[in-house]
Amino acid sequence: MSVANAKHTVLHPVVPYTGPVPGGLHPGEIIIIQGSVPPDADSSLLQGSWTREETLHQLPYKHGAPFETIILAQGDAFKVAVNGAHLLEYKHKIPLNRVDTLSVSGGVSVHAIAYIPNSAIYSESGDLALPYKGSILKGLIPGQHITIKGQSTCADGTENVALHLNPRIKSGVFIRNSYLGGSWGQEERELPFFPFSSGGYFEILLLCQPHQFKLAVNGCHLFEFRHRVQDLSSIDQLEIMGDLELADVKLW
């Protein structure tokens, strides 16, 4: 995720690191921690730093690999994603407005810690009308996320479409495609499971990476879609339509 809109950035802190959270935390704000795990990191220290008893079944941090941890502050909980995949939700033990310190420890090297204010995030919520159309200022850049929340109600454009998502609840099929130069491309349908149900709540997380989109539904990774439009900055519109009640759309 880009740290260009950060209100405060700490570069190359010495670990263990403890520092203040500038201005405290508020709902909608984000903390980004970018770093890497040294190849010779002590596994037991990693386990002790990052796991919780019977909570995480698989560590997302790998020896010798970079990582990006994103912590989203919400009114009742923190949501944590690592390398674009939802990891956990942690209910607040103290009021959010009392959170004033961040601590990082363990066998990791931290390159940057960034605090992203809520004002740097595009967000709309409430009873959003369909079809929905929103502008993505300056287009997409690698590292940005789009979150779509809503509820399904029941089970031909002319412009270029970089990524077309078409879940079909009755048949249990989730079609991905693109519409470029006046014609549809090759459909992609393979799924590990179908995540939607008639009348069911859903939360879609779409991560833009340099060479592909990654999509998760309700916290579970679903698929990747390789970019067919190479100029990501030209992707400047988001449209949502169909049989659903749209509750929230966020770009961050």
Arithmetic mean of pLDDT? 80
Q: Low-confidence stretches at least 5 residues in length (pLDDT < 50)?
A: 43-55
Largest sheet: 6 strands, antiparallel
What's the SSE pattern? EEEHEEEEEEEEEEEEEEEE
Query: What assembly state would you assign to the polypeptide chains in this entry?
Result: single chain
Name the CATH class of the largest domain. Mainly Beta
Order of strands, main sheet, comes to: 1-8-3-4-5-6
Radius of gyration: 19 Å
Distance between the amino and carboxyl termini: 8 Å
Q: Number of domains in the coordinates?
A: 2
Shape: globular
CATH topology of the largest domain: Jelly Rolls
How many E strands? 19
Tally the helices: 1
- Which class best fits the helix and strand makeup? mainly beta
CATH architecture of the largest domain: Sandwich
- Helix amount: under 10%
Strand content: over 45%
GO molecular function, one term: carbohydrate binding
Organism: Tetraodon nigroviridis
Pfam family, one: Gal-bind_lectin
Domain Galectin: 17-252
